[in-house]
Specification:
The chain is of the alpha/beta class. The protein folds into 2 domains: about 130 residues, UDP N-Acetylglucosamine Acyltransferase, domain 1 (3 Solenoid); about 55 residues, Udp N-acetylglucosamine O-acyltransferase, Domain 2 (Up-down Bundle), CATH 1.20.1180. Helices cover about 20% and strands about 25% of the residues. The chain is built from 4 helices and 28 strands. Strands 3-6-9-12-15-18-21-24-26-27-28 form an 11-stranded mixed beta sheet. The longest helix is centred in the C-terminal third of the chain and has 16 residues. The model has no long low-confidence stretch (mean pLDDT about 95).
Length: about 260
């Protein structure tokens, strides 16, 4: 390891590989079997789980790009099995939530930026050059394609897919494919749902729920009442209803095409 700097209070797990010209500051924890490439910066307050890959040029745990940040102690947590590709930047939290949290088995592609206090769940794909502002929440199995810009406080639902070069300024509900400009409902994330093992009857149920929400042109409160009346209670139905009811930014619109 040429010109690599590891802080005296950093905790490095077993079988960890660290590349040349990498800096790991004090008060960092790196889990077992994690691989860290060249020219990586892992800054104070960062915790990296087991079996991760951190590729060249990544900067993890940087100071939030938020003028309200006043030097308070905050953190970045990355779970097990997550891959962070080249030149990704992930900022730690502010006093708002105290930490930025990246879950397990995520793929974060090259040049992506994840802002302060974001919470990304498990098994997500964050495409290249995605720009994610602060306090964004991303649900399990979400797939965000490259060059997408995501507004602060946006929520991306589980099993959703956002096409490339999108602008996300409203919340994206679970299970949907979001596309076009302005971003709109473009059907279900059929490919993703089939890969996750959703059966055909369940996919048809989701289609019917979203038909009421996006294609029948009801106002949202009336559509949600219809869904409660017409569909049996299931995990998927309730996830959709709760997501929409709790949305503070409002959800994307139905496609006009």
């Amino acid at each position: 390891m040429k010109n690599t700097v590891i802080g005296k209070t950093a905790i490095i797990g077993k079988n960890v590989s660290v590349g040349n010209f990498t800096t790991i500051e004090n008060d960092v924890i790196v889990g077992n079997n994690t691989w860290i490439g060249n020219n990586v910066s892992i800054l104070s307050g960062s915790k990296i789980g087991d079996n991760c890959q951190i590729h060249s040029g990544a900067v993890l745990g940087g100071i939030p790009q938020d003028l309200k940040y006043n030097g308070e102690e905050t953190f970045l947590e990355i779970g097990t099995g997550t891959v962070v590709r080249e030149f990704v930047t992930i900022n730690k939290g502010t006093k708002s939530k105290g930490k930025t949290r990246i879950g397990d088995n995520n793929l974060i592609m090259a040049n992506a930026h994840i802002g302060h206090d974001c919470f990304i769940a498990d098994n997500c794909v964050i495409g290249f050059n995605v720009g994610m502002a602060g306090e964004v929440i991303v649900g399990n199995w979400a797939n965000i394609s490259g060059l997408t810009a995501i507004h602060q406080f946006s929520v991306i639902g589980e099993h959703s897919m956002i096409t490339g070069m999108s602008r996300v300024v409203k919340d994206v509900p679970p299970y949907v494919l979001a596309a076009r400009d302005p971003l709109a409902y473009a059907g279900l994330n059929i490919v993703g749902l089939k890969r996750r093992g959703f059966e055909l009857y369940k996919i048809e149920e989701l289609k019917e729920i979203y038909r009421i929400i996006f294609q029948e042109r009801h106002n949202i409160s009336f559509a949600l009442r219809m869904i409660r009346d017409q569909f049996m209670q299931t995990e998927e139905r309730d996830l959709i209803l709760n997501f929409i009811e709790q949305s503070s930014r409002g959800i994307i619109k139905g496609s006009i095409f």
